[in-house]
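$ ./design --mode recover --in tokens.txt
reading tokens...
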């Protein structure tokens, strides 16, 4: 099994090495397009960044792939020469060591895998992966090329710098790109694709594209400059050769038709040629002498030499002499004899007795011997010959093709220009070659600096974007952590709040259950004629205290619902006039108890409004209750008016008033002000509930107060009116049915006190009552006796009220079902009504509401 795993691992590693080598080679081809001869160093070497990125992602096991890829790309660049193969091996070793060193330093100092969020880590990552590790291949390559003679000692530093910068930029650009695509964790690195990867790649492509475009334009301009330079040099050389022809013709004219030319005359003419043309080495005059068999031989007559120590003999074959001797005067041209080995050219002119005779043979030959190098030097004197090499070739029927002159070198660029010159019976070719080193010196360097500047900008852009995204991601992580903490805290708070709400709901239920008995029996005792008046006052106190306790419970539940954003509103059409009249009557009595005047002013009130009448009643009642509570003498005034879809409620009192610095505190929950006339019974949540309810109804409340003179509370509520006329009754109030027949009612409640209380209240309405203490018995009784109405408690053993009503509604039983429960939450009420109950009574039971429900039924 281990052997199989080992072979599989080796196979996988081998494939990865091949893939790495292939990628290195492909990106190396891109680098060669930007390479600078003769060291083949590139302004950017993408393979260096790819190599480091692959080692970081795949591990050290793939380094042979880097070696192989670099070796083949180096062989492609330098060739298969033995020395160059050695350079390729050194270059491959340097590339591998550089990538391994970069990975080691990054792993040791920065740490990898890493998301590189800190600025310090990003700088160290680029520093160790780029300039530090890239100094290794730059040093090895420059040293190897210098030892092999490709570079001179003076060229080594600049080529080291080029290689170092190119590899570093390759790391700056391509390593981040590789990590963005493949590094882990992907959730962080992928976020850098658009803000870092795309700008970095586009910037690199833009600079490279612009570089190739400018390079093309520069190369075209350079070719044009070379064209102009070579043409100028060719014309100068042609002109110089033609001047030599002219000198030969001028000297030859001395001998035509004149047999008295002496040595002094010849010497004078020759010296004039020497003075004007430094390249002329000698001038000769030789006569023909006919030998046997009509062959010719030249006899020297006059000969002048520039330097007697350097004599260049003129050797002509018999065949050439015969050809010259038979040239007719009409065909007389300057002929050239080339001696490339001796680097001289002989210009020959046949001389005739007379210019007038057309058909005659020459009497001799005038020759001029010229130094080829000196002639070219004189022709190009004062002209720009930089970066140009020259080769001159000639051909004729006698000697065939020959090289007249050449100063070219083996490594010349293949760019050349060719020009022709006819000289006698010969055709000369001038070849001007562009110097490769000149192209390197004058063309590549400016472009390289341009490319380096652009790529350095791209590198700095990439580093800056990495830092910015690192800070952004780090901020996101901090925000995520804080958000998670806040969500956890919020969830804990919501859980605690929910537990509080459940606790309050449970406490409310448990308090309402005994409170139902207290308030109910107190109401029965108040109506009992057998109770003495003195005891009725005591019962009234019990009833009053229980009502205060019920109000306190309701307020606590309201403020809890507001804090947990669970306050619900029932928007419906209601009779506002009846509502306000009920409130006025109630609080007029309360004001009378304290001997206070109660005034109600109303203006343009609509009969009906759309809104939540329960919440509106609660707001007005709280404001009036506070006004009466904190007013010991004077009056309380309620003003209601309706303007522009706004209900405006104003409560004015002549109480103790509130100091200006305390006006913002009175709306805070559980806060009571201290001071003269300010401390009253209660827990200080009435105004807080009013403010929050008004806010939820999109209204506003304001207060104006003067200490010692009273306060004015103003409420504005946006409530829509209804133009439909209403009946004189509202809510559940219907005409009282005076038919006093027995109404069969079933009561189902497991609490004995509540059951007795409700039974007593219904007996006063002359109803026939049956009682059970669980849902199953209630279901059986309903099936047996067909009751008209049933009062069902929600919480009962065996079968609760919700289960019972659902069964009855499934049976299509139309009995009137009334829920009774100490749970006063709107969600519980809605659940009960949705289950099938027709009405819902909250404990403690309001006898007025109970009577209204009973009077709704038309019984026989």
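writing sequence...
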């Amino acid at each position: 099994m281990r052997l199989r795993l080992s072979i599989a691992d080796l196979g996988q590693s081998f494939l990865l090495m091949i893939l790495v080598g292939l990628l290195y080679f492909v990106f190396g081809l891109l680098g060669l397009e930007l390479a600078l001869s003769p060291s083949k160093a590139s302004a950017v070497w993408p393979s260096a960044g790819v190599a480091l990125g692959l080692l970081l992602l795949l591990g050290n096991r793939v380094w042979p792939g880097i070696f192989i890829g670099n070796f083949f790309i180096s062989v492609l660049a330098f060739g298969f020469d033995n020395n160059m193969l050695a350079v390729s091996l050194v270059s491959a070793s340097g590339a591998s060591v550089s990538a391994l060193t970069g990975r080691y330093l990054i792993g040791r100092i920065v740490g990898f895998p890493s998301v590189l969020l800190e600025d310090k880590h990003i700088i160290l990552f680029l520093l160790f992966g780029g300039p530090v590790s890239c100094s290794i291949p730059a040093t090895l390559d420059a040293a190897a090329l210098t030892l092999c003679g490709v570079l001179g000692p003076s060229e080594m530093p600049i080529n080291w710098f080029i290689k170092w910068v190119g590899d570093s930029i390759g790391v700056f650009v391509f390593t981040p790109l590789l990590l963005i695509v493949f590094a882990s964790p992907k959730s962080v690195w992928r976020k850098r694709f658009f803000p870092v990867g795309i700008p970095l790649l586009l910037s690199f492509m833009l600079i490279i594209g612009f570089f190739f475009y400018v390079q093309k334009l520069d190369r075209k301009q350079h070719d044009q400059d070379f064209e102009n330079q070579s043409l100028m040099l060719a014309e100068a050389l042609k002109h110089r050769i033609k001047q030599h022809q002219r000198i030969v013709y001028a000297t030859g004219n001395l001998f035509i038709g004149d047999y008295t030319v002496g040595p002094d005359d010849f010497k004078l003419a020759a010296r004039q040629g020497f003075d004007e043309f430094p390249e002329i080495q000698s001038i000769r005059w030789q006569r023909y002498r006919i030998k046997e068999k009509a062959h010719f031989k030249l006899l020297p007559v006059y000969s002048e030499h520039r330097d007697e120590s350097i004599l260049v003999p003129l050797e002509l074959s018999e065949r050439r002499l015969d050809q010259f001797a038979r040239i007719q005067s009409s065909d007389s041209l300057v002929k050239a004899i080339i001696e490339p080995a001796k680097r001289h050219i002989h210009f020959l002119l046949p001389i005739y007795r007379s210019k007038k005779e057309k058909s005659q043979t020459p009497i001799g030959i005038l020759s001029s011997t010229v130094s080829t190098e000196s002639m070219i030097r004189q022709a190009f004197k004062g002209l720009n010959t930089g970066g140009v090499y020259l080769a001159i070739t000639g051909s004729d029927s006698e000697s065939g093709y020959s090289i007249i002159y050449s100063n070219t070198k083996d490594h010349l660029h293949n760019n050349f220009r060719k020009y022709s010159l006819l000289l006698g019976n010969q055709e000369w070719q001038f070849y001007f070659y562009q110097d490769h080193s000149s192209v390197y010196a004058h063309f590549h360097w400016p472009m390289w600096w341009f490319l380096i500047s652009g790529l350095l900008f791209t590198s700095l852009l990439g580093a800056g974007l990495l830092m910015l995204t690192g800070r952004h991601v780090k901020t996101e992580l901090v925000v995520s952590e804080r958000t998670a903490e806040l969500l956890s805290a919020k969830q804990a708070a919501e859980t605690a709040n929910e537990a509080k709400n459940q606790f309050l709901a449970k406490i409310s239920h448990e308090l309402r259950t005994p409170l139902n008995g207290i308030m109910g029996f107190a109401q029965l005792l108040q109506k009992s004629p057998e109770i003495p008046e003195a005891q009725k006052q005591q019962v009234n106190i019990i009833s009053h205290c229980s009502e205060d306790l019920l109000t306190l419970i309701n307020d606590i539940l309201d403020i809890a619902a507001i804090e947990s954003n669970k306050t619900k509103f029932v928007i419906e059409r209601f009779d506002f006039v009846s509502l306000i009249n009920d409130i006025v009557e109630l609080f007029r009595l309360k004001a009378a108890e304290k001997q206070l005047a109660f005034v109600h002013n109303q203006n343009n009130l609509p009969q009906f409004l759309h809104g939540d009448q329960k919440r509106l009643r609660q707001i007005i009642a709280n404001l009036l209750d506070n006004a009466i509570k904190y007013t010991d003498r004077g009056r309380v005034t309620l003003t209601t008016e309706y303007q522009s879809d706004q209900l405006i409620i104003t409560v004015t009192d002549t109480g103790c008033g509130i100091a200006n610095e305390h006006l913002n505190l009175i709306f805070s929950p559980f806060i009571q002000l201290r001071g003269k006339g300010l401390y009253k019974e209660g827990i200080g949540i009435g105004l807080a509930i009013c403010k929050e309810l008004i806010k939820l109804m999109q209204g506003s409340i304001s207060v104006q107060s003067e200490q010692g003179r009273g306060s004015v509370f103003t409420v504005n509520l946006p409530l829509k009116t209804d133009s439909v006329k209403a009946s004189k009754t509202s809510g559940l109030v219907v005409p009282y049915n005076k038919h006093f027949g027995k109404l069969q009612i079933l009561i189902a409640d497991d609490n004995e006190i509540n059951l007795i209380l409700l039974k007593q209240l219904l007996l006063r309405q002359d109803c026939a009552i049956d009682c059970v203490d669980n849902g199953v018995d209630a279901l059986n009784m309903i099936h047996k006796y067909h009751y008209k109405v049933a009062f069902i408690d929600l919480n009962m053993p065996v079968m609760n009220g919700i289960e019972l009503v659902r069964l009855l509604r499934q049976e299509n039983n139309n009995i009137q079902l009334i829920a009774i429960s100490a749970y006063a939450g709107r969600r519980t009420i809605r659940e009960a009504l949705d289950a099938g109950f027709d009405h819902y009574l909250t404990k403690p039971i309001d006898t007025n509401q109970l009577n209204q429900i009973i009077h709704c039924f038309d019984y026989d």
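exit 0
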